[in-house]
Amino acid sequence: MNAVAPSPIDIIIFGGAGDLSWRKLLPSLYMAHLHGRLVDNCRIVGVGRNDWNGEQYAAFIDKTSRAHVEASALQEPAWQNFLRRLDFVSLDATAGEGYARLAAACQPGSTKVFYLATAPVLFSQIAENLSRAQLIDGQCRVVLEKPLGHDLPSAQAINEAVARHFQENQIYRIDHYLGKETVQNLMVLRFGNAILEPLWRAPYIKSVQITAAETVGVGTRAGFYDHTGAMRDMVQNHLLQLLCIVAMEAPISLDSDDVRNEKLKVLRSLRKLSLADLQRDTVRGQYTAGVVDGQQVKGYLQEADVPECSDTETFVAIRAQINNARWAGVPFFLRTGKRMQKRHSEIIIEFSDPPFSIFADQPAASHPNRLIITLQPEESVKLQMMAKEPGSGMKMRPVHLNLDLQSAFTERRAEAYERLLIDVIKGRLTHFMRRDELEAAWKWADPILEGWKQLADKPKPYPAGSWGPAASSALVAREDAVWAEAQ
């Protein structure tokens, strides 16, 4: 009996010549191609205003994307075969007449994946035009890139516009942090190990830190970033998604809705911050001139296209609280910033001190147990414990039990975008935000943004190459804690 050939797949990228496409999406799809994760009849169709055909688009990707593929993976025969998958349709996303050409470019009976790597203001028009061209059917999918709105009303407007043409189970709101191997491994660490789950709660956990630090400034994105800021760009999406995975209850299954139901409960349990809370529990910052990686860099206000009196925050630290029985009294410290001392993203679970210690006379005894989950630049999981120093006596010092995932699993680890793109192709929704999740996140973030506006509180300056304003250290010090880099 002959095997049934897999259905053809058309991955249609609106904004196909944009920065995200040639830096991330096409290199990720090439890696999937190289490792046999794309079916033979999978084609990638770039869409944009450029007056190109498929060959010209392939030449553009050949020129721009090569540098973003790991050198050891850039195998010339495979790369050339990948470029043969590419096609291009020239059209104005806001005008309907070009969509007939897009329909003609798709393979008969294909599963269509529409990736909207464009400004969100175009999402509604693209969905409307796809519908008019009869390109939407029951098996197609649409991927929405962030930022998904500027506030709750704009997020709801985007959701409603897209929902007029796509069912919720066809909509993939992408957050590349959820594609990271260590983030996905956190589910297994929590719910697959009896040693951790009983301790994953108050009073056994003293605090949680979630940090996403960048060394880069705003670069060429100042026009976008100055209207967005760190709260909208990082906290409302990336950091809250990490918080949800750390704090959620065990889902009844790995079904996508069961997992996302538990994440939604966390978002709905986040304590809303009053104006008094904002003054006490949040810190806004803006980088000034300094030194990063040995290079002198400009301050935010000196960057191109930044208004000279801008009060946009490039740094945020927040003490968050989850109002439920598991996390009663446990502070969650969220922190993100640009032009920080080093590029570093991690989650630190700080366990409580023993209720009584026979080693209380030793300063080292104040070092708590910590689970350190590093997301970038390298991915790792370490458990910090106390051990006796060699020699006579009982002097202690902290040591790490290193869960060496690189050695334990020698197979290749896919990058976040590659992993998530394959999830879209296979119809797996678990690592994508559902509509009510997105809106619940904005319901928590909007009062913070509005409160800052009411307080007219200018962001605190911090020199580029530092770890942010000194006030962020004071924020955690109130809880008898310090940020990880100060350990």
Automatic annotation (TrEMBL):
It comes from Malikia granosa. Keywords: Carbohydrate metabolism, Glucose metabolism, NADP, Oxidoreductase. It holds the Pfam family G6PD_N. GO terms for biological process: glucose metabolic process; pentose-phosphate shunt, oxidative branch. InterPro entries: G6P_DH, G6P_DH_AS, G6P_DH_C, G6P_DH_NAD-bd, NAD(P)-bd_dom_sf. Residues 187-483 form the Glucose-6-phosphate dehydrogenase C-terminal domain. Residues 12-185 form the Glucose-6-phosphate dehydrogenase NAD-binding domain. The keyword Glycoprotein does not apply. The active site is at 238 (proton acceptor). GO terms for cellular component: cytosol. It catalyses: D-glucose 6-phosphate + NADP(+) = 6-phospho-D-glucono-1,5-lactone + NADPH + H(+). It is an enzyme of class 1 (oxidoreductase). One of its GO terms (molecular function) is glucose-6-phosphate dehydrogenase activity. Belongs to the glucose-6-phosphate dehydrogenase family. NADP(+) binds at residues 49, 146. Substrate binds at residues 176, 180, 214, 233, 338. PANTHER family: GLUCOSE-6-PHOSPHATE 1-DEHYDROGENASE, GLUCOSE-6-PHOSPHATE 1-DEHYDROGENASE G6PD. This is Glucose-6-phosphate 1-dehydrogenase. Catalyzes the oxidation of glucose 6-phosphate to 6-phosphogluconolactone. PROSITE patterns: G6P_DEHYDROGENASE (PS00069). Its EC number is 1.1.1.49. NCBIfam families: PRK12853.1-3 (NF009492), zwf (TIGR00871). Pathway: Carbohydrate degradation; pentose phosphate pathway; D-ribulose 5-phosphate from D-glucose 6-phosphate (oxidative stage): step 1/3.
